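## retry 2 of 3
previous attempt timed out at serialization; input unchanged, resubmitting
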Amino acid sequence: MPLPSTTARDTARQAHERVPVVVLELDLDTCANTFGVSPCTATGTECYNTFATCKDRPNFNRSTKTVKFCSRGTPIPPGETLRPYLVDITGAVTSIDIEKGFAARASLTARLTDEPDADIEMDPYVASRASAAQGTFWTRLLRRNPNYIGRTARVRRGYAVTPWDWDTFQDERYVIDRIAQGANGEISITLKDPTKLADRGKIPVPTDGKLLEQLKGVAATGLVQAATSTTIQFDPQADSNDDALNGFEVAILNSTGAGQRRTISDYDGATRTATISSAWAVAPDTTSTYEVGALSLTLTSGKGSQYPDPASTGKREFIRIGEEVIEYTAVSGDVLSWDSGENRAQFGTTRADHAKGEVVQLCRAWFDEPVTDVIVDLLEESDMPSAWIDTTGIAAIESEWYGEQFHVTACLSEPESATSLLEDLLPQISAVLWWEPGAQKVKMDVLLAKLASPPEWTDEATLIEGSVAVDTLDDLRLTYAAAFHGLTSATANRKEAKYYGFGEIAIDTDAESANEYGDRRTQVTFSRWFPEASAVAMRCYVGRLLVQRRDAPKRIRAQIDPKDHELAAADAVDVLTAQLVDDTGDPIATRCILTKWDDRGDRVNVELRTLPAGRTYGYIAPDGTADHPTDTVYAHISNDTPTMGDGSAPYLIL
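## retry succeeded, writing output
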C-alpha cells in the first residue's frame, strides 16, 4: 500500500536538486466570540480568546487556531504566516512490533527556538492594549494555552519549489503529548500518534457502584409442600415476611414440572405461599424440588447511570460481583434486573452470595464475533474516532484471511487498557495494527506471505552504499509452540493452563535435532479470546508461529533516497543485497516488510524484517484445477515423497 502522493510531490522528490521543507502545525483552542460582544458578557480588559484567560467561561465558544512553524531559511509563501522557529524534527514515524502486534506509538520530537514577538498574530486585541506585550512568543503562548495535551498537530513534509506548491507536501497527523521549556529558550514538543488514546482508555470502563443490600446466590430451596396452577407453597424454613420474595423467581429443579421458571408476583409469609405471574404449564407436586433466586439488584444511590442499558446499546451487558458474572437485561434508576435465574453465573463462573457493599464492575463481552469486528470495537471504545480507523481495509482482511474459526467469544471482567488487550489478541491472528500518519488512519495487516510481487530494493538502484546492516534475531527462534484456549471461567487466572479446556501444540523435531539447532525454544500462549469452536484457528496459530520463527528472522537496517520512499509501514519489499546471499555467495532476493522509517529530508532511515517466504506458497487450488506443474497459479498438495510433480519442494501451508 504505497504512501499517498501527488504529481507535484513525485516531480519534486525526483528532482536532482531538492530543497526539503518541514512545516509543523499546532491546532490550539481559541474562542470564536468577540470580547464584550454578545453572547460574550465580559467587561473590562480584554482576554486573549483562550479558555485560561476567558472572563465569561459559560459562553466560551471553542474553536481552533492553527499556529505554523518552519525552519529558518525556508521561503515563506505569500499569504502564509510561518514562524521560522523550527530547528529539527527527529524520531520514527512508525515502528511496527511484530511480536506485540500493536505497533509502538509513532513519536516525534520537534525542537524550536523562542524569541520576543509583537503578539500581533496571537492577540486579537493587540491594537487596543495599553502597553506592548512583554516576554517571548512561547512563554506567553504556554501561559495562555495550558490545555494543549491531546490537541492535533500536523507534520507536513515537502519541498520548496517555485512557485510554492502545497501539493509537494505529505501531511502526517499526530497529537501533542508534551511541551517542555529547555535552557536558552529552546522548546521541545513531543508528538505521538493518536493510537496513544488506546493507552489511556480502559475496557470495560471502571465502575464503582456497590450493592445496596445483600444479593444471595439462592434465596430459598427445598421440597414443594403444595401447588395449584398459579401458586406454590415453600418449605417451612422459607422467609416468613409478607412480600419478602415479590419479584423473585422460582425454578422447579427436578421431578414433576422440572425446568419451569416463574416470577413471584405476591408472597404470603405466614403460609410460605407464592403466587406466580403466569400459570404453570405442569403444576409441580410434593415430589418436586424448587429454588428461589433474585432477579435484580440495587446499587448505591446515583450509580445506575454508569451501567449501559441493553435496550439502548443493542448488545448483551454483563457485570461482575466477586468471582461471579451476571447478565443483566434492564436498567431502571439504580436497579439492574435480569429475566431469569439462568442469567446468573455466566461465562463459567459460579453463583454465589454477595454481601452488601460489594463492588459491581461492568464487563464487556462478545459472542461468536468476527475477530476484526472485536479489534474495531476495542479501538472505538478506547475513544479512537471512527473516522481515524481504516474499517474498510480491516473488513477486507477479515474476508481474505479469517473465517468462522477465528470468531471471538470472550468476557472481559476487569478494566484493562485497549493497548494491552490488542497486544494480547493481535499476535494470535498473525496481525499487526499501527497508525499510518500519511493516510491518517489506523491500519491493520496480516503478517503472512502475500501472493502479489512486491517492489525490489537493490544495492545498485535503491539502498545507499554502506548503509545496509543485518541482525539475526536468534532470541525469537522457536521449535515448540503451545496455545491454550477455551477459558473455563471469565474470572479465573488466565495465565494458568489449568483454567483452559483445550490446548494445541506444534513441534518442529527437525529443528530440535542435534544436526540442526539442538535445543528447544518454547512459546506458550493463553488465549481468552477463542473458545472450543476455534480449535482449528489455534492449530493454525501454533503452526504459523513455527513457520514464521522456526529459523531466526533477520532485521535489516538501511538508508534509501527520498525519491525511492514510496512504501508505507507493513508493506512488503524484496531486498537484494550483498549482505544476504545464497549458498554460492550470490545475493538472493529476501522477502521483507517495512517496520520502521524515519524521513530525514536528504535520506530515509528504514528497518525491515524478513518474512518466511523461502519456499513456494499460494492459495489452495479449487477442485478441478489441473495437476501441478501444468497449473502453477495455485498451491497444490504434494506427492507422498513429499515433492511436487516436477520434483520441486512442496508448498507451504500458511
